UniProtKB/TrEMBL annotation:
Dihydroorotase catalytic domain sequence ranges: 3-99
GO cellular component: cytoplasm
Single annotated GO MF: allantoinase activity
GO biological process, one term: purine nucleobase catabolic process
PANTHER family in the record: ALLANTOINASE (PTHR43668:SF2)
Domain of life: Bacteria
Keyword set includes tRNA processing: no
The protein's name in its UniProt record: Dihydroorotase
InterPro entries: DHOase/Allantoinase_Hydrolase (IPR050138), DHOase_cat (IPR024403), Metal_Hydrolase (IPR032466)
Entry keyword Ubl conjugation: no
Keyword vocabulary terms for this entry: Pyrimidine biosynthesis
Coiled-coil regions, chain positions: none
Length: 175
């Protein structure tokens, strides 16, 4: 209650997915009691762990371990299912796949209290940006396919994705 009184408007897992659903439910339940939003960075920490780009023929050709889109959609599905169960508003951060857009569209059609964002890099870049081992194209979640980019842009136009976020996270030179 002190957090809400101090102006806290949301809880976030800030890039570290809560793998244990029971713990995630407890956090969502606390947020619900306070009437605040849960911001969920959706990525299954065990699926594609250690991957450096999108799992696809491109990652195979480059010899790089990939992260499958399913790592994102599994967690988004979990958040969408739990939101009405726990009477909580959920905001999905960093949407990067067509399948995630489809899940969100279906949830919104059913009246779910879910919002979502994507980042400009997912709209204008795709996994081909990694082809020359360009480390500036290494983001999390990874850049996906051109089809995913097109779906995200359309979802933004249609209101399935509610906002753009830069996801600016400054790092020291050694990082």
């Amino acid at each position: 209650d002190t957090l809400a009184c101090a102006g806290c408007v949301a809880f976030s897992n800030y890039g570290v997915t809560i793998a244990y659903t029971e713990l995630f439910c407890r956090a969502m339940d606390y947020a619900s009691d306070l009437g605040i939003v849960v911001i969920d960075n959706c990525e299954d920490p065990f699926l594609g762990n250690g991957g450096s780009m999108n799992e696809s023929p491109v990652s195979g050709r480059l010899g790089l371990k990939g992260k499958p889109g399913a790592a994102e959609t599994i967690q988004i599905a979990r958040a969408i299912e739990l939101a009405p169960y726990l009477n909580i508003r959920v905001h999905i951060a960093h949407v990067s796949t067509r399948q995630s857009v489809e899940l969100l569209a279906g949830a919104k059609d059913k009246g779910a209290t879910v919002t979502a964002e994507t980042c400009p890099n997912y709209l204008v870049l795709n996994e081909s940006s990694v082809e020359c081992y360009n480390t500036r194209a290494k983001v999390n979640p990874p850049l996906r396919t051109p089809d995913d980019s097109a779906a995200l842009l359309q979802a933004l136009r249609d209101g399935v994705i509610d906002s753009l976020a830069t996801d600016h996270a400054p790092h020291a030179a050694h990082e």
